[in-house]
Amino acid sequence: MNGHELPSILPLYEADSTILLPRAQLPIILQRQEDQAILEYAFSEGHRLVGVIQANPEGGHFQKGCVGRIINFQDGPQIYLTLGGLCRFKITELLQDDFINKARVCYEEYEKDLEDMIVDPFVDRSRLLTLLKDYLEEQDIMANWEEINHASDDLILNSLSMACPFKPIEKQALLEISSLSERCDMMIALMEMARPRIKGKPVLLH
Predict the structure, then answer these.
(1) Angle at 90 (CA atoms; ends 47, 55), nearest 5 degrees
(2) What pLDDT was estimated at residue 182?
(3) Domain 125-198 annotated CATH 1.20.58
(4) What pLDDT is stored for residue 3 in this prediction?
(5) pLDDT (tens digit, 9 = 90+) per residue, 186-199?
(6) Alpha-carbon dihedral sign for residues 66, 67, 70, 75
(7) Where would a tag sit more exposed on the chain, N or C end, judged by fewer CB atoms within 10 A?
(8) 3 state DSSP class of 177
(9) Which residues in the chain show pLDDT less than 50?
């Protein structure tokens, strides 16, 4: 698949403090009627694709997000679905619709996202995993280390960027960053900054 095969118009799901990244999975519970309309649109268009964007705490939403394909769906009083991340995008135009938020989007900056796996020799995996173990213990977050040790750098970094309780602006920076090694460096910096806050100590900036 390449960027030209993805639809230029996407229904938008706006999430609070939540991002989606390529090759990672995002479980969602849909409760609002307008969110269910997004799902109906994605199925009616035949592509089963939804653009996930993050709400901006200062108002509105960020202009870059990630398109995900509906890979699991369970109907009921609440709708449970899982999105599989495909490719990041930039919103070029918001479109008027009476029922859902839609946008014209561009994928040109992020077509490498569509590769099966991204490899970056400059990812400092050992330092990342050492910090991650301490960070998760301090946050009381359980982790399956057997799976983590066998996962690719790409999957680890994308999943962590989505799962860790960083601030919205920090999550958005992790989404928009260009290379995997840069995302790794930012992840390491964020975890190092968070550790003194978790322990109730001031953060010292040099």
Answers:
(1) 90
(2) 96
(3) yes
(4) 63
(5) 999 998 887 655 45
(6) positive
(7) C
(8) coil
(9) 198, 200-206
The token duo for 154 is 């790409």
The single-letter code of the amino acid at 156 is: I
Which residue in the block uniquely carries the two structure tokens 């960070």?
135
The span from the CA of 8 to the CA of 45, in Å, is 12
Helix H or strand E segment including 134: helix 125-138
Residue pair 101/11 in contact by the 8 Å Cβ criterion:
yes
CA atoms within a 13 Å half-sphere pointing along the CA-CB vector of 22: 22
Which CATH number is associated with domain 3-114?
2.30.130.40
CA distance 38 to 45: 11
> Domain ranges in the chain?
3-114, 125-198
Own/partner long-range contacts of 123-130 (Cβ < 8 Å, ≥24 apart) = 123/153, 123/157, 123/180, 123/181, 123/184, 124/181, 124/184, 124/185, 124/188, 125/153, 125/156, 125/184, 127/188, 128/156, 128/157, 128/184, 128/187, 128/188, 129/156
Please list, in sequence order, all residues whose beta carbon lies within 8 angstroms of the beta carbon of residue 149, skipping any fewer than 6 positions away.
129
Q: Are strands 49-54 and 9-15 parallel, antiparallel or unpaired?
A: parallel
